Amino acid sequence: MQHPIQHYYGLIEEVLMDFKIDLAAARGQQPGQWNLKLGSASVWVDVFQSKDAQGNLIQSGYFQVMSPVCDVPVNNQHLFTKELLEANHSLYGVAFTIFKDKAYIKAIRELQGLDKSEVRATFDRVGIYADEWDDKLKTKYQIFTGGGRG
């Protein structure tokens, strides 16, 4: 049975309350978006439905959690991207991704079958890995960065 997307909004907010996150402060501009801090990591959570070629919502939806880690360095980009790809091999349930000259830790999966323990584990993984890698990469590649949700 397919749950309505609001079911998953509630699931996310249950876990956020377990993390003692202020729901009103965490909610994003659109329904299904939350912005929070886990440790030193900024974490963006999205629950959304896909659209078909005509722009109509389709049945399947997705749960995405990502954290900005750092800017892609101007120098040594090949070494930086090689390091991220090699790091992906040892990460569990998440991966590095690059979008618009920024590196992120990202997890995405279908909504169907998502449960509270998986939401919690995904938050933990994204927060821990982003916290672990941000300083390491910024120091090694001399990256000075900031920025919000793009």
Can you lay out the helices and strands and say which pair or pack?
Blueprint lengths: L4 H14 L4 H4 L6 E6 L2 E11 L5 E15 L5 H12 L6 E5 L2 E9 L5 H25 L10
Antiparallel strand pairs: 1-2, 2-3, 3-5, 4-5
Textual characterization of the structure:
- The protein has 150 residues and is of the alpha+beta class.
- The chain has a single domain (5-140), classed as 2-Layer Sandwich (Yope Regulator, Chain: A), CATH 3.30.1460.
- The protein is 37% helix and 31% strand.
- It is built from 4 helices and 5 strands.
- It has a 5-stranded antiparallel β-sheet.
- Strand 4 and strand 5 form a beta hairpin.
- It is globular and about 45 Å long.
- The mean pLDDT is 91.
Q: Look at the structure and give the mean pLDDT.
A: 91
Q: Enumerate the spans where pLDDT stays under 50 for 5 or more consecutive residues.
A: none
Please indicate the percent range of residues in DSSP E strands (runs of 2 or more).
Answer: 25-35%
| CATH hierarchy class name | Alpha Beta
Major sheet description: 5 strands, antiparallel
- The shape, in one word, is globular
Strand order of the largest sheet: 1-2-3-5-4
Calculate the terminal CA-CA distance, rounded to whole Å.
34 Å
| H-E order | HHEEEHEEH
Helix content: 25-40%
Structural class of the secondary elements?
A: alpha+beta
How many distinct beta strands?
5
CATH architecture: 2-Layer Sandwich
Q: What is the count of distinct domains?
A: 1
Query: Treating each run of at least 4 consecutive H or I residues as one helix, how many helices?
Result: 4
Q: Would you tell me which CATH topology applies?
A: Yope Regulator, Chain: A
**Rg, alpha carbons:** 16 Å
